[in-house]
Specification:
The protein has 5 helices and no strands. The radius of gyration is 20 Å and the shape is elongated. It has one domain. Helix 3 packs antiparallel against helix 5. The protein is mainly α.
Length: 163
């Protein structure tokens, strides 16, 4: 039940990242046209907007990658054959990911507060718009990794009772 809800949430993130990528094309195209053709004047706010969108694309992409198990995972040792060793390998990575997610969430709140007292130069947008992506990503990483860890433990228990 929780897995289905998290999968649907991740699907929303996938759609959102697609929309943001399409939105990112607009200010980037405006910058290119302005700089190389002179058809339209150079607007510096487009660079800020592109940066804001790009930050969100990166953070949402990292959330999706945590769900897919393709982020923060480097194979130093070959994959274990034993269910217990497999649990220990995957569990170690997931526990570290949970810890990093908690750190990002905790310290990201202060980072967001810091951003909330600043405005961007060209657009005048409050910087909390991008800064809030850090604690949000940390929370989502923590939830996704915790779910993956519980699933790994469940798989280990099932394999050990089947043996």
């Amino acid at each position: 039940m929780i897995g289905i809800a998290l999968e649907r949430f991740c699907m929303v993130l996938r759609v959102l990242i697609g929309v943001l990528m399409m939105a990112l094309a607009v200010p980037v195209a405006a910058q290119v046209i302005a700089r190389y053709t002179g058809i339209i004047p150079v607007y510096l706010w487009t660079e800020e907007l592109a940066t804001f969108i790009f930050v969100w694309v990166v953070m949402i992409g990292s959330m999706i990658a945590v769900w897919d198990g393709t982020h923060f995972h480097v194979e130093v040792l070959r994959e274990a054959k034993s269910p217990l060793l497999k649990l220990l390998q995957n569990g170690f990575v997931l526990v570290l990911l949970i810890l990093f997610g908690l750190l990002f969430a905790w310290y990201g709140i202060e980072y967001t507060k810091f951003g909330s007292i600043q405005n961007s130069v060209m657009m005048g947008a409050n910087m909390a718009v991008t800064h809030v992506s850090v604690p949000l990503a940390g929370m989502v990483w923590t939830v996704f990794a915790t779910y993956r860890l519980t699933e790994a433990v469940r798989e280990y228990r099932q394999s050990s009772t089947a043996s």
